[in-house]
Amino acid sequence: MTTAWVSGDSAARSVGADEVAAALARGGASVKRNSSRGLFWLEPLVEVETPAGRVGYGPVSQDEVAALVADGMLEGRDHPLCIGAVDALPYLTRQDRRTFARAGLHEPLDLAAYEASGGLAGMKRALAMPPADIVEAVVASGLRGRGGAGFPAGIKWRTVAAQNAPAKYIVCNADEGDSGTYADRMLMEGDPFALIEGMAIAGLAVGAETGFVYIRSEYPAAIDTMRAAIRVMTNAGWLGNDIGASGRRFHLHVRRGAGAYICGEETSLLASLEGRRGEARAKPPIPAIAGFLGAPTVVNNVLTLAAVPTILAQGADAYAGAGRDRSRGTQPFQLAGNVRRPGLVEVPFGITLRELVEGFGGGTASGRPIRAIQLGGPLGAYVDASMLDLAMDYETLAANGAMLGHGGIVVFDDTVDMAAMARFAFEFCAIESCGKCTPCRVGAVRGVETMDRLLAGDGAARHIIDDLCELMTDGSLCAMGGLTPNPVRSAMKLFPEDFAPRSLT
Ligand SMILES: Cc1cc2nc3c(=O)[nH]c(=O)nc-3n(C[C@H](O)[C@H](O)[C@H](O)COP(=O)(O)O)c2cc1C
Ligand code: SF4
C-alpha cells in the first residue's frame, strides 16, 4: 500500500488536512501524519512516497482526492496539482534549515525517527562535557535570543550558571503573541523532541533540574503534543531522575497561558507561572539572578532552545559560520499577511527583505504593489517598498529604526490604510497593557483618541501624538508601552499622506 503523508500541523488542519487524510485512507492509501514543511500556500499538501522520493500535490481539497487517486496520484503521476519532488522545491533547497531541519519529514512523536535524523546527538555530547564547556559552546556559537530582544543566549546561561542557589529553572517562552508568527507553534507541534532536548541541555549547562514550557492557550495542539512528547522522552530515559543513564536529573512540565500578550514579556510570564497576575516588573533583578520563585532562571524562546541541540551536535563554529556581524547562525523567518507564498523560511542572517518577500514569498497575494511591511510583531516598525533591499540582521535593522523581533514579516499591499494601522497600534496596547504604569495604560488610550482627532482635522493633535510617543518610549516600565510608538511613528513618517483629515466612519 502506498504511503501518503498529510501534515497534522494546526495550519494544515485549519484548511482541511484531516478531511483530506480521511479521503486518502478511503482511497486506499496508508496515511501518515507528518509535521509541517512550512509551505503554507500548498496546504493541504499530500506527499506520496514513490521509489524516487516523495512527490507532492497541493493544495488538495477532500473533494479532489478520489479523482486524483483515479489519475494515478498514489503512483506519483503528473497532474496540474503535482508540484514534483518535494525536496527539490526551490522554496526548500534555497533554505538552510537547522532548527527546522526535520520539518515535515516524519511523525512528530516518533523518537526513533528523531534519533535517526540526528536527534539526541547534542544531548549525548552535552552529557559528556563539563557544564561550563556547554555554556561556552553556546557563547561561541553566537546564538542570540529569538524571542525579540536578541540577547546572547550563552551570556544569559553563564549568568545563571554562576549563581550559587539551591534551585535553578529553565523556562521556555512559548507565548508566541507576535502578529504573523507561528514558528514556535510549528516547532512544538512538529519537532517537540528538539525543544525538550534543548531545554535538558540548558539544564545540564546551568545546573537546573526543572523546566517549564509556558505555552499560550491558543495553541491547544502544541500543548497536547508537548505533553505527549515529554511522556515519550521520560519513558525513554531522556527526562527524569537519570537522564541518559548519567545520574543527572531534569524534569519538564507544560504550563498553559490565558490569552494575554503581556505574558510573553518574561517578568509577566514568570509572575503568571507562579500563579500571580501577569504583570511586568522592573528589572533589575534580571530573571537570570532572581526569576521563577526568586531563583536563578533561564528564560529563552522556543527557537533559541531548539537551536541548541544542533549547535552541540555540529559544533559552535558550524553555527557561527552562518550569518554576519553579530547576527550569527540562521533565523526562521515567517512570511505572513498579503503574500502569495506564506511560509517558514530559515536562512542565515543577512538575506535581504526583497529576497524573502519577493523571492520566497512571490510578492503580494493580491498581485498589487507592496506598500508596507511590518517587521517584528505588533511593536515593530513598518518599512516601505523603498526599503526592500535592507539586510535582515539585528544590526542593519536597528540602524534603520526597525527590529527583527521574533522574525515575523507581515506584508500589506497598496490598499492598506496606514492611519488605521497606526491607530490599531495604540488600540492593541490599550487592550493588552498590563496596566501597571501610567505612560502605557493611559498613554495608549489617549493615543487612540488623539489619532481620531488628527484624522478629524485637528492639526494640534500631531504634536500631542509626538509628545505621547516620546513619553511612552521614555517612561514605560517595559517594552510593551516602550515600543508601541515604533509602528505609530514609522507609519506617520513613511506614509504622511494617509494622515490627512478625513471623515471618520
Ligand atoms: C510585550 C512583550 C511580549 C513578548 N512576547 C514574547 C513572546 O511571546 N515570546 C518570546 O519568546 N519572547 C517574548 N518577549 C521577549 C521576552 O521578554 C524575553 O526577552 C524572551 O523570552 C527571552 O528569550 P530569548 O532571549 O530566547 O529571546 C516579549 C517581550 C515583550 C516586551
Ligand atoms: S509598559 Fe504597559 S505592559 Fe509594561 S508594565 Fe507598563 S503598563 Fe504594563
Measure the end-to-end span.
Answer: 60 Å
Unreliable runs, pLDDT <50, ≥5 residues?
none
Identify the overall geometry. globular
Ligands, deduplicated: flavin mononucleotide, iron/sulfur cluster
Count of helical regions: 21
- What structural class is derived from the secondary structure elements? alpha/beta
Fraction in beta strands: 15-25%
Question: What's the CATH architecture of the largest domain?
Answer: 3-Layer(aba) Sandwich
What does this structure look like?
- This protein has 505 residues and is an alpha/beta fold.
- It folds into 4 domains: 3-93, Glutaredoxin, CATH 3.40.30.10; 111-320, NADH-ubiquinone oxidoreductase 51kDa subunit (Rossmann fold, 3-Layer(aba) Sandwich), CATH 3.40.50; 323-413, Ubiquitin-like (UB roll); 418-499, de novo design (two linked rop proteins).
- Helix content is 40%, strand content 16%.
- It has 21 helices and 16 strands.
- Helix 7 (131-141) crosses helix 10.
- The N and C termini lie far apart (60 Å).
- The protein binds flavin mononucleotide (FMN) and iron/sulfur cluster.
- Residues 145-149, 151, 173, 175-177, 262, 264-266, 299-301, 304, 478-480 line the site of flavin mononucleotide (FMN).
